[in-house]
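Entry under discussion copied across for reference:
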Amino acid sequence: MALWPSRPEDSENPHVVTMLGKPGCHLCDDALAVIARVCADLGARYEVRDITVADDEEKEEYWDKIPVVFVDGEQHDFWRVDERRLRDALR
């Protein structure tokens, strides 16, 4: 999974959404679609990290929960992303 573009240059939204997932994961694909849509609407930045290349500690903590979504480094959701809840966190 690749890192995605930064927020638009003219955006003042300081938030960063990080999704920890893995290639071929349908829940990750669904979560990423929600994240991309919400971040585009609100001007927030998002990135995707591949758990298969994460350190052992992250693998142990999050493997059973992917996709795991963080907002500004704090765990926000796992397995599914609630669009309204994510929007509220980024405002």
Summary: Residues 1-5 have pLDDT under 50 and may be disordered.
